[in-house]
Amino acid sequence: MKTILMTIAVIFFSMVANAQTDSEKFLIEKGTWSLGGSFALGSAHTSSERVDYPRDFKSFSINIRPDVGYFIGPNLQAGLQLGYGYSKNKYEESVLTELKRNSFSIAPYLRKFFGLSSKFSVSLTGSPYYNFSQNDEYSDNEQFGQLRSENYGVNIRPGIFFMLSEKFSLNADFGRLYYSHFSDSRDGEDRQKSDQFGLDFSIDNIWLGLRYYIN
């Protein structure tokens, strides 16, 4: 994962350097459609030797977000994004030995591009969203619990775009400023509700994508 982050950083700074010598402006015209999507991967190994609560688990997650957008003005895009996520945690020395999670989301968005050269732009995306997820809990391959949760709120995400050609672009989003409302239930019984506001720059919020433009 560190190698991926270093690669992204090198690409970013090389494009910024190129932008300073390019006099043409980044422009996606009104009436252009875009089709594409992005993905995020996460992996971790967490270990704690606390006497009262020992923990040792490995986690893996993958998330995909297909989307369609339409430029309602020059460098101003409105669109709709769908999402699916899957994650799995494996635990050692615990009654809970495995946790599997499936999630689904929908998010309309508004994105503004700020061109730095003819091919390179930074972006800011605002998006209300709704997310539903289901967690299945297992002990020695037998399911013993189910946790369902709902989450809705608003995200503001910074990003970068690089035009490979007139039809294709590479993009990346980094982190988010967010407000969210969260509620969950276990086996049909309500458990908790919470409201959060904050910044999140975790690995799970680094999204890489590809888009195709139609005009």
SS-derived structural category: mainly beta
Measured distance between first and last alpha carbons: 36 Å
Q: Biggest sheet: strands, sense, closure?
A: 8 strands, antiparallel, barrel
Helix and strand element order: HEEEEEEEEEE
Estimate the mean pLDDT confidence: 84
Number of domains as seen in the coordinates: 1
What's the overall geometry? elongated
Number of strands: 10
Helical run tally: 1
According to CATH, the fold-level topology is: Porin
Percentage of residues in helical conformation: under 10%
Note poorly predicted spans. Answer: 1-5, 19-23
Q: Which CATH C-level class is it?
A: Mainly Beta
Strand content: over 45%
The appropriate CATH architecture is Beta Barrel
What is the gyration radius calculated from CA atoms?
20 Å
Q: Order of strands in the sheet with the most strands?
A: 1-2-3-4-5-6-7-10
Description:
- There is one protein chain.
- This protein is mostly beta strands and 215 residues long.
- The chain has one domain (2-214): Beta Barrel (Porin), CATH 2.40.160.20.
- 8% of the residues lie in helices and 70% in strands.
- It has one helix at residues 2-19, and strands spanning 33-48, 55-73, 76-91, 98-115, 120-139, 142-163, 168-174, 176-186, 189-200, 206-214.
- It has an eight-stranded antiparallel barrel with strand order 1-2-3-4-5-6-7-10.
- A hairpin with a 6-residue loop joins β1 (33-48) and β2 (55-73).
- It is elongated.
